[in-house]
């Protein structure tokens, strides 16, 4: 939870979404720009950086590790890279707030340093599973202590050196893959990681842009350490995970047409578009001219009737952060939507299966949560009160549900929306969502 402010969204139904919008920068790419720019040689200039709490937590931690980072204007960073060996012991624990990506990627980066460090976070982050990174890092020779439950604080002790390993990840996780790749930069020999399904490859792409080729073959990703990274310019696209709320909102609210500009269209992230299109959504993709960074494009979404589907299991990692919004789409679709193979949703910023199931049924939707997914029968949202449990994506998803409810929808526990989407309320209101924010000291 951020401080002691309680924030509630109050949505009046009946709105429609229209306009040209640009959502903030991609969270995953923003983290990686700071982490990799910091250990490159030379100055890395970043544009489109997400000034949300999660990415700012990575930035603040990196400054504590002795890396000079300027913020010359909104969304711009100037990172004075210190090189692979230039990080310094931090003055105290690194507080990564709500950000699982920061904690897992820093675990990999700091595992091979010659100084000790400690990683902590907020209540939600301190409950999330960390053995998925500390176990394989231990196989590489790292020394990282967790609690008995395998949670933070992570206490990282200096070790003589790391060695490359071959590691088959039991869960498809870009955070684990990235942590091991970062550790692999410091390791002797080759670090090979196998992913059971394709996950976002921003780390691989950025490493290649910084002069460290990463080979990818048959599900194996390989990096050879130690390496030197060379600074570059990084353009951060608009975050498809934030665009997803408008893709769903405009799909379900009659008379809506929204154009989303400059959205990142990395193939490992566009599962949400594919799933919505399979449900009947009207989404047109206009790719931007190919530039230096990751692919981007303009998305035009118009209201369309949706139908329930069985979500193909191979699309799950490609849409892993968009399921709260997709559940809202499913609740408005004709027939049943079935999701399986998504147990990871239970260990995100909240248990997203349980919290979404509770909220959907509070709004009159028939749901059947399962250990690894959910079955949702489309219907009509009633008005009512739901709780986002401090999960940013759940708060924004239920805000979109309010567009088509039969009465006002109140959403408690919305303070964390700024972790990924600063300015959400203003942008959504400008597009036509009738949203009020009530803040209370708790
Ligand atoms: C992320 C990877 C995903 C995603 C998270 C961001 C990343 O987590 O849910 O929001 O930036 O690498 P997992 O890799 O644990 O699935």
TrEMBL record:
Which pathway, metabolic or otherwise, does it act in?
Answer: Metabolic intermediate biosynthesis; chorismate biosynthesis; chorismate from D-erythrose 4-phosphate and phosphoenolpyruvate: step 6/7
Q: Which CDD domains match?
A: EPSP_synthase (cd01556)
Q: What class of enzyme is it?
A: transferase
Q: Which reaction does it catalyse?
A: 3-phosphoshikimate + phosphoenolpyruvate = 5-O-(1-carboxyvinyl)-3-phosphoshikimate + phosphate
Highest taxon in the source lineage: Bacteria
> What's a single GO MF annotation on this record?
3-phosphoshikimate 1-carboxyvinyltransferase activity
Specify the Enolpyruvate transferase domain's residue ranges: 12-426
Q: Where does phosphoenolpyruvate bind?
A: 27, 100, 128, 175, 352, 393
Which key words tag this protein in UniProt? Amino-acid biosynthesis, Aromatic amino acid biosynthesis, Cytoplasm, Transferase
Active-site residues are 321
Q: What is its EC number?
A: 2.5.1.19
Instruction: State its location(s).
Output: Cytoplasm
Q: Which NCBIfam families match?
A: aroA
Summary of the function given for this chain in its UniProt record: Catalyzes the transfer of the enolpyruvyl moiety of phosphoenolpyruvate (PEP) to the 5-hydroxyl of shikimate-3-phosphate (S3P) to produce enolpyruvyl shikimate-3-phosphate and inorganic phosphate.
The UniProt family comment states: Belongs to the EPSP synthase family.
Q: What is this protein called?
A: 3-phosphoshikimate 1-carboxyvinyltransferase
Organism the protein comes from: Spiribacter salilacus
Its taxonomic placement starts with: Bacteria, Pseudomonadati, Pseudomonadota, Gammaproteobacteria, Chromatiales
